[in-house]
Amino acid sequence: MEIIVNKDKCTGCRVCVDVCPVGAITLDNDGKAQIDERCSFCRLCVKECPENAIEIVGEEKKKSETDLNQYKGIWFFAEQKHGKLSHVSFELCGISLKLAETLKEEVCGVIFGSKCDEMAQELFNRGANKVYVVEDESLDEFRQDIYVCLMTELIKKYKPNIVLASATMIGRSFIPQTAARLKTGLTADCTDLAIDPDTKLLQQIRPTYGGNLMAKIVCENHRPQMATIRPKAVEEAKPTGNNSGIIVKDNFASFNATCRVDLISKEAVEQTIDLQEAEIIVSGGRGLGDGKNFEMIRKLAELIGGAVGASRAAVDSGWIPYPHQVGQTGKTVKPKIYIACGISGAIQHLAGMSTSDYIIAINKDPDAPIFKVANLGIVGDIFEVIPKLIQKLESKR
């Protein structure tokens, strides 16, 4: 398989040069497009060329061995903790309802755990048409092997068209393994989804090339179409007041699910505010210079009732654990207020926090990229600004 330029058709319009994310296309001495070895076969140039001068040759279209028409319904995995649904479940319900407007298929939740009837009623209230339930107290705690087995067998039995999960620790753990068992594709960490109006395929949208490009990925020949969605990337489904829907229950014992890990005991661990649930986040970056300086970030966060976040640079330096990381390789957050302290604003960090309602940036570099997205920018030394903020807040108590 190779990508070629038809020199007779090429007009040298430079459209392909501009869209190539890896800079693999230039114009030769005759003003015609030429493609070098940096090409990643992303096919953007093929799609965007107005003259159809760029072609893929030697590529054979694989025909699906599955009857795709038998797959119907939009499923989302509803995470629960101690019998209470997580907010990400309502986010998945919201994006599923959006897809259903075009696809005209049922929106169905999937719940593993106990007290499932109560949780199913919550999903009906958010707009779900049906909820598939596997109920057992042992399922209240996440165990990957068992969750993979249950989800795989349910999909084989009921054949949904689309299966969604949140890109949380749980979703990232068991959904890829489920997709592999089903021999279908999976797009991870999507920031949005849509239905192609012509093909009715699921368009799975996510950033790529360091956030410089938004990719639209489709799964043409296999089912179900599967994706994980970043928490806080889509809106929650709103309560409707309607609690009616269909609950489909499968007997847990019938799955013969086994786990290679036994839960021996549970130990209480000090809990901090969940970044993805926090309404205020105070984040520190490379500008702090040392891990011990996160103490003033924690103090500021405590005074305003916020959670502590961090840039990848701070985490990679070992100043703060990974669960605090905000960004493309960390958590996507959407608080009411986001305070960035000593964070320059690399595109990977912006990908995780730019949807915050109000962004405050403190940085001594007036040209820092963070100021381009900030609602309020403070150009100054964080070691002068933050202590004064803390002092002022303490005086108001």
Distance between the termini: 68 Å
Strand arrangement in the largest pleated sheet:
11-15-10-5-8-9-16
> Which class of the largest domain in CATH terms?
Alpha Beta
Catalogue the unreliable spans.
Answer: none
Structure description:
It is a single chain. It is flat, with a radius of gyration of 24 Å. The N and C termini lie far apart (68 Å). It folds into 3 domains: 2-57, 2-Layer Sandwich (Alpha-Beta Plaits); 68-255, HUPs (Rossmann fold), CATH 3.40.50; 280-396, 3-Layer(aba) Sandwich (Rossmann fold), CATH 3.40.50. β13 and β14 (213-217) form a beta hairpin. 26% of the residues lie in helices and 24% in strands. The chain contains 10 helices and 21 strands. The chain has 397 residues and is α/β, with parallel strands linked by helices. It has a 7-stranded parallel beta sheet, with helices on both faces. The chain has a 5-stranded parallel beta sheet with strand order 18-17-19-20-21. Strands 12-13-14 form a 3-stranded antiparallel beta sheet. The model has no long low-confidence stretch (mean pLDDT 88). α5 packs across α6.
